[in-house]
Amino acid sequence: MSDRVVVIIHLTVAGYGDEFDAGIAAVHAAYRRVSWVTDRIEGLLRTELLTDSADSGDLLLVSEWTDLDAFHAWREGPDHAGGARNSALKPFQDRSRARHFVVYRSIEAH
User: Fold this and answer.
1) Using an 8 Å Cβ cutoff, are 105 and 5 in contact?
2) Radius of gyration over alpha carbons of the chain, in Å?
């Protein structure tokens, strides 16, 4: 068993309507501004921005952490809660979902 966790945040550019390309560009720009992309965060192994191959306006932000404690330490710390750069992606969070983000624990890996 692994302690590793993967956090998935659902993003959307639905609010951009006809300006779809501008919305995608804005998500990319916001992603490059958030601290856990530009700075070293203890316990954060990697981040990745994914798009649905059938609907490029449906995006996922995936982050991989060494363990749940590392993720919670960051989430409850000043880098997340008060970090202005971290709010850059907030307008793109897909709040139409019951949960706009989920935290998965790795139970087996090969």
Assistant:
1) yes
2) 14
Amino acid residing at 56:
S
Q: What is the pTM of this model?
A: 0.84
How many DSSP H helices and E strands does the chain contain?
A: 4, 4
pLDDT along the chain (110 residues), means of 10: 87 84 90 76 92 86 94 81 69 90 89
Distance in angstroms (rounded) separating the CA atoms of residues 19 and 92: 14
Which domains, and CATH codes, for the chain? 5-105 (3.30.70.100)
DSSP single-letter state for residue 109: -
- H or E, element range at 85: none
